[in-house]
Design brief:
Helices cover 19% and strands 13% of the residues. The chain is an alpha+beta fold. Strands 1-2-3 form a three-stranded mixed β-sheet. Strands 4-5 form a two-stranded antiparallel sheet. Strands 6-7 form a two-stranded antiparallel ribbon. It comes from Camellia lanceoleosa.
Length: 135
């Protein structure tokens, strides 16, 4: 895609993937070591662009202290006009947070309870930590 469609100002974009594993191989130590190497390499980037729900991207942004750009997925629930948008924080998304309030004994919006927790950019039910002073 990058070869056939250059950037507006003609920058060269390189995409490197050391392992080319293709799918997850549970129990294969060599596979896990290659996956860790790729995550670590991502964490060293100056700018990180990830796809929605990317486990590698989430871990890399946390390790590297990066606030990534997230690609928009028009087939999913993300509602952005631009092809990508900046994450609100470097914190990874907790995709399956608790949603039950034990005190009132019913479901609740756990993203609205405290000022330092917000809903994730790539899923409306997920939660992430944010710095309320940077919003």
């Amino acid at each position: 895609m990058y070869w056939e469609n250059p950037t507006i100002i003609g920058e060269v974009i390189g995409v490197f993937q050391p392992s080319h594993e293709g799918y997850q191989q549970l129990g294969n130590l060599t596979h896990h070591m290659k996956a860790w190497a790729e995550i670590y390499l991502l964490s060293l980037m100056d700018v990180l662009i990830t796809s929605p729900w990317s486990t590698f991207g989430y871990v890399a942004q946390g390790i590297g202290g990066l606030r990534p750009w997230i690609l928009n997925n028009p087939q999913k629930e993300m509602d952005y006009d631009l092809p990508c948008h900046r994450a609100t924080s470097m914190e990874p998304c907790f995709h399956f947070p608790p949603f039950y309030d034990c005190q009132v004994k019913r479901r609740t919006d756990t993203g609205a309870r405290v000022p330092y927790v917000r809903h994730c950019e790539d899923t409306r039910w997920g939660l992430k930590l944010v710095d309320e002073h940077e919003l």
